[in-house]
Amino acid sequence: MASKLSVLLLLLAVATVTVLAQRRRPTNTNEWNYRDGSEKVNMRGVANLTQVLDNWRFDILTQMKGLLQNDHQSLLPDYARIQPLSEALDDLYKEFNALKAHLGDLTEKFSAIETFIDEVKASRANNANAGTAPAAGAGAGAGAGAVPRQPTRRVMRKKATASS
């Protein structure tokens, strides 16, 4: 029991030392400390750099102001192109709507053709069932209920000409 207590106290002491060591240790060593070497900075050089940057800013803003007042076409988009683009887009929209309307007309025409084809198929199926019904009752075999086939068609191919 005494050995367990001494091991426990030893672990507690190690944990306490570890925690205290991490508190003293800085966590972010990667950050730049701007105060290091601040005594060595030449303030006259900093003032000169600040003056140079300020002059650049003034020159850039002056040039931009002059361009906007005198030659705005070089900085701003060409607004003359917007109207033709708008008209072209309007034309495309009208063509799309016309194609959509034409597609609707074709769909209506094909629906009438589809109903006609469905009626023809139904009548053929009824005629085939009516013609084979007595034979099927008599045990005609594998040919019962077959739909009559159309006459076969031949495919004619062009003869290959030898060109040398």
Automatic annotation (TrEMBL):
Keywords associated with the record: Signal
PANTHER family per record: HEME-BINDING PROTEIN 1, SI:CH211-76L23.4
Keyword Mitochondrion: no
Protein's UniProt keywords contain Lyase: no
Region spans: Disordered: 132-164
Listed name of the protein: Si:ch211-76l23.4
Signal sequence, renumbered to the chain: 1-21
Domain of life: Eukaryota
Biased composition (Basic residues): 151-164
